What does this fold into?
Amino acid sequence: MKKDSKLYVVVFTFIVSFVFVFLLALANELTKERVKINEELFQRKAILSAMGIEYNSDEEAYKFFDEKIKVKKVKDIDVYISNVNGEDVYAVIFVGNGLWSTIRGVLAVNKEFTEIVGIDFITQSETPGLGGRIEEAWFKEQFRFEKIKDGKIEMIIGGTGKGDFDHENGKFEAITGATRTSESVANMINNYLSVLKDLLGGEL
Amino acid sequence: MSEYNKILKENVWYNNPVFVQILGICSALAVTNNLTNTFIMTIAVSLVTAFSSLTVSIIKGFIPRKVRMIVQTLIIAFYVIIVDIILRAYLPDISKSLGPYVGLIITNCIIMGRAEGFAQSNGPIISFWDGFTSGLGYLVVLMSVAFFRELLGFGTLFGIRVLPEEFMSWTIMLMAPSAFFMLAIFIWVAKGIMLRKEAK
It folds into this structure.
């Protein structure tokens, strides 16, 4: 068959596409379980750290999650409940749009709904080194035991660049160069604070 | 052996894909504000370039000219997705911090450039070496740019603090435009050295 004939081109393209796509499907199938386990682990670790429960290893994260956290379905939303240092803590998984991608994370508050106990992120695909820095400890620590003022939290633009650690003011500092991502995080938290408030005031 | 040495020198210095051929600039702007991400990204690019050049070279005799570039793109995309799958399964933390950039390796012009310019007309082993060393040339430049950007932007290297806490970090270094300045300075210095050598 001539190499530039139509039939050869079609047959060749079909075979090459088939082989490579088959290999990709195979690689995906072989690693599917592992990826699922990783995602599950990320979610458990995020819930634990948002609630302020410390763990030292992946095994410990699995163990503590099973031992210390109860899941209750309220109005189709999974609410994670635990008692940390004598205080009841409630957490929900939040989902929303970042600058580039969907951000999934965990928001934990105390029973009286006076402060955010903590936040953590499960998945995000924001710009690495800019918006992706929402995963860094300093950014998340800004929310640790932060007072909730009027049912929400406020974002500071153009701060010191190192974070706002005054936990009484109900404010956090945006990431320099990633204001849009920080804004999305603020919106998501504020949305879910009102969701949690409804749940806490209702059936919980 | 001398041919392999020649290719190494060409790809890393005299004909470096970034500062001589001005290819792969997009990722030089994007990933270089953090050494860890840059390192993983450049290693991934080197491996993808090496393996796609190897594959293109092996099957070059069967590829019809009309669909040459589409087949090359398919091969490159295949390796990029393989890298993505491996990272997601075995290095999930790194996969998380690189975010969408792994997928964007497909658009790196260096890979297509080597497949089209070298692998299409050379043997498999030497094409693999050419691809890998082109990746090394890319790595050297991006790591140098990332070194200064992370140092001045965050005061850290590979996430470890090296400058004192009081150091006022240069926020501009974290933004993409600073990579333009850094890259321009890099090209200026490298070309200066090259021209000086030639003059001698």
